[in-house]
Amino acid sequence: MPTYRRADAETLATIEELIDEYHGVLKDCAVRVGALFAFAPRDEETGEPKNPAIKKYGLPAVATVRIVSQRDRVSGLADAMVVLDGDAWRGWSDAHQRAVIDRQLQHIEVQIDDDGNVKTDDCNRPKLRIVPPDYLISGFRLIAERYGDDSLERQEARMALKVYGESVFGLMAQ
C-alpha cells in the first residue's frame, strides 16, 4: 500500500496558477483542488519499489484526480483531490509537472443546470464531475500482433493518429 503526504506549497501554488490561467470556470466557482503525493511501498532489503505508487485501470499511473465526497468536503477538505507520484515528481521538469497537473484539472467539470446555473450540493459547494479523456487507447500488443489490422488495438491507434496526429503525437497523420 502506498504512503501519502500532503503536497508542498509550491505544488499547491502551481495548481492555483493553472486554474487561474486555463480553468476559468473552476476559478469563477472557487473550486478548491488539493493534492497529495503517493509513494510506492518499498522492499525492506533492496529499497526498490514493490508496486507502483499509483494505479489507474490496474496499470501504473503518474497521477489521478477524484471528486471529494460531500462528507469530506464538509469536514474542510478540498472539492477535488489530485494524487501525484511522489517518487517520480522531483525528477520531472517544471513543464512536465505543470502538464501532469493541468491534465488532472482538465478532468474536473462544474455541473451546470438547464438554465445555465451552477449546481450546488447541500453545503452550497459546486457539484463536480470527472470528465473522461478525449481519447483512450487500450488493448493488448499480442492481439494487435495476432489479428493485425482487424484488431481494435490497431484500429483505435490509427483513428487516434488520424484525429489527433500533430497535436498529440507530434507528427502528421498519414
If you had to describe this structure to a student in words, what would you say it looks like?
It is a single chain. It is built from seven helices and eight strands; from the N terminus they run βααββββαβααββαα. The protein has 174 residues and is α+β, with helices and mostly antiparallel strands. The model has no long low-confidence stretch (mean pLDDT 93). Helix 1 packs across helix 5. A four-stranded mixed β-sheet has the order 1-2-6-5. The chain has a two-stranded antiparallel ribbon with strand order 3-4. Strands 7-8 form a two-stranded antiparallel ribbon. The chain is 38% helix and 18% strand.
List the helices and strands and how they pair.
Elements: E1 3-6, H1 9-22, H2 24-28, E2 33-39, E3 55-56, E4 59-60, E5 63-67, H3 70-74, E6 80-85, H4 86-89, H5 94-106, E7 108-110, E8 128-130, H6 141-147, H7 152-169
Parallel strand pairs: 2-6
Antiparallel strand pairs: 1-2, 3-4, 5-6, 7-8
